[in-house]
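Sequence in, structure out. Go.
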Amino acid sequence: MPRRTREHRLHVAETFSLEGHRHSWKFGGDALFTTIYNFFPSLFGGEYIFRDIKVNPSTFEPMLAGMEITPLRAYTHQAARYYIQNFGSTESHPDTNEYSGFAQDTIRITTRLAMSLGVRSDLQTFSTKGLVTNPLWPASGKVPFDTNNFGPRVGLAYSLGEHRPLVIRAGYGLFYTRIPHLYTSTVATDNGISSANLFLDNSKFYPRQVFPTYPNPAVSCALTATTCTPSANLAGLLTSDVSAFAPNFRSPKVQQASLNLEREIVDRFAAGVSYLYVHGVDLIRARDVNLPAPVNEVYPVYDDSGTNFLGTYDNVASFSTWQFTPSITCPFVPCINPLVRPIPRLGAINQFESAASSVYHGLTGVGAPSDAQRILGPDYASTDMRLTRRIYAGDHVKLEFMAESFNLLNRDNKRVNSNDDGFLSSAAQFVQIDKLTGLNHFPAHFRQPTHLLSATGAYAPRQVQLALRLIF
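Output:
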């Protein structure tokens, strides 16, 4: 279903400069007012998921114990394994205002040394329109208000030597990043009161009684509807997720430092090297805090085929308990019971925390681009080089020739796909549902990716480009 976002922005900025004998002062500030309308009917139309499923071999009706078929065959017989659908409001208004002010002084200490000192203050506020606090989780329905975002800045430039001097430039700054409206929008829509989630497993007895017929949704909601309400027969199968900021949430910030060395080697030919360091602090991480304490379970270790026991055991942290007594939902023991959450009336509580960090080191030639916002890997390395030659064809005409190479050494940088859950694999094989080792049964669903942690692509090979520019 479509997602629509409309933003209206008003930006006001002002800067003042004051020149002295050795000082150059700058003062300024700006304000950005953003009004946002967000329409996001996420899974309001329902979604079927086809996975391995056990069915009646005659009718292909799903059942707990039967003939297991592949996802493709399940799709052929319209025997979906899972069905999911969300309910609640599709609209949110995560309006935000941003204010900042700065002061800077550039000091000419000597004819060879100059220094810049500055400080910047940033404040981001959010609208509370549409926010609801869930009594079961008091931190919900609230937005952060961090007023202590002061970032110092310092830089220097020094010229060493008389003839063809070595020019040294260095700088350091602390920068606060804005919080995307996606987080405040999610806080507004996922409050655990007016929102609900439906998850049905067609292989289980009770969910199968209300499992919709493919391709029909369990509840039909118009594409442009602003709300979607579940039917009464689904009430006992719904869960309510909550998204909230942690009480001690802080604005993300980035420390950035750079060092640049440049010197003219021969007439009209200069060489240099630049180093860039970027350290992200208090970056946003989402964590489900409505989980019980994990319990270590001892599992046997098998080879990749899932059939040959290697004679060793390993501890596996599990949030669920085991069931050893047969029941309607577990006729063949042992089974892994459904998750029992500390707050049973709520599903996942996705708490946005200031708990992640990042580090970037970059070494480049003068003028070579660097992208500090990539967190690339694993084992990513690339060497780029640029050569520039300027030819004077007269008093007012210059030719500039440029040769650039990216990934100069043609390194094979493997590329893997990843998301919040880790690495992704596009293919997998399924083995036995449980294991009998000696006299012990171990409940498990062994899903073995065929390319676990293996690259499925590569970044660009060596690229060379030439340019000629006429300056007049």
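Check: The two ends are 54 Å apart (CA to CA). The chain is about 5% helix and 50% strand.
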